[in-house]
Write a structure and sequence with these properties.
The protein contains eleven helices and no strands. The longest helix is centred in the N-terminal third of the chain and has 42 residues. It folds into two domains: 45 residues; 212 residues, MetI-like fold (Orthogonal Bundle), CATH 1.10.3720.10. The chain is mostly helical and 281 residues long.
């Protein structure tokens, strides 16, 4: 019993050291960039309205954290982060869900898939943010649905295109085997095509998780409630309080990275059989 515990502890220690060695270059570069940023601002006496020091940004962020933790206080930054996150999440769910659904329908018939794919690629190249004033007019400038609609359009086409590729690029030998067993189209779709498409789908979802937050923040630059990150950044920058504006950028980065990690965790849970995870193990 004691030996088994010791082996598990040694295996855990080895795994932890490997993780630290794997992420050490990234952490070291991040620390070096922040330290260099701080030193350059101090040496060249760069004014705050041009580029605030990282220490000033961090101090302002911790002040907002302290306000958020107090029961009798409210932090506008955290309220704005929560509102922007729900706009990004709502658009992500609508856009990615719609993209996967349309891909499932169009991939069933090759003619339909080949006919719609050029339109999807062309629509994906349109600067979607140009639709922001239109969506604000349709749904209302303070309505979160206008931002969700923009995010949904941004993430819809990458998800649809990747899913169609995953559903159609199936190994012909596997498809022939399913036909030899007289498998029904529904079985072929869910047991072969959809499983083959999972890596493509999650690749699109990882990209969409970052795009959704970027789309929500940029859409808010065209107007919205005060308690949203895009409006918060715009107003604080207009008031020359750039430390607060950078804390909002930091908040957006934290939310975006967290969103990406949640999608990555879901990918590992749903498809641990994929070769990329086996090689990493």
């Amino acid at each position: 019993m004691a030996q088994a515990k010791a082996r598990r502890a040694r295996a855990l220690s080895v795994g932890l050291r490997r993780r630290l060695l794997y992420y050490f270059p990234t952490i070291a570069i991040a620390i070096a960039v922040i330290a260099l940023w701080e030193i350059i601002v101090l040496i060249f006496n760069i004014q705050q309205f041009l580029l605030p020091r990282p220490s000033a940004i961090f101090a302002e962020f911790m002040l907002q954290v302290d306000l958020w933790l107090r029961p009798d206080e409210r932090s506008i930054l955290f309220d704005a982060g929560g509102a922007t996150f729900w706009e990004a999440f709502g658009g992500f769910v609508i856009g990615c869900g719609g993209g996967i659904l349309v891909a499932l329908i169009t991939s069933r018939w090759t003619i339909v898939s080949e006919a719609t794919m050029p339109f999807a690629i062309a629509a994906n190249s349109v600067p979607i943010i140009a639709f922001a004033p239109i969506m604000n007019n349709w749904f209302g400038i303070t309505n979160p649905a206008s931002k969700m609609a923009i995010v949904a359009i941004i993430v819809f086409f990458p998800t649809m295109i990747n899913t169609v590729r995953g559903l159609t690029l199936v190994d012909p030998n596997q498809l022939e085997l399913m036909h030899s067993y007289a498998a029904r189209p529904a079985h072929i779709m869910f047991k072969l095509r959809l499983k083959n498409a999972l890596p493509y789908i999650f690749s699109a979802l990882r990209v969409a998780s970052a795009l959704s937050l970027v789309g929500a923040v940029v859409a808010e630059f065209f107007g919205g409630p005060r308690a949203t990150l895009g409006v918060y950044i715009t107003q604080e920058a207009s008031a020359f309080d750039f430390a607060k504006a950078w804390t909002a950028i930091l908040m957006a980065s934290i939310i975006g990275i967290s969103f990406y990690l949640v999608v990555l965790l879901a990918e590992r849970r749903l498809m641990p059989w994929h070769v990329s995870f086996r090689e990493a193990s």
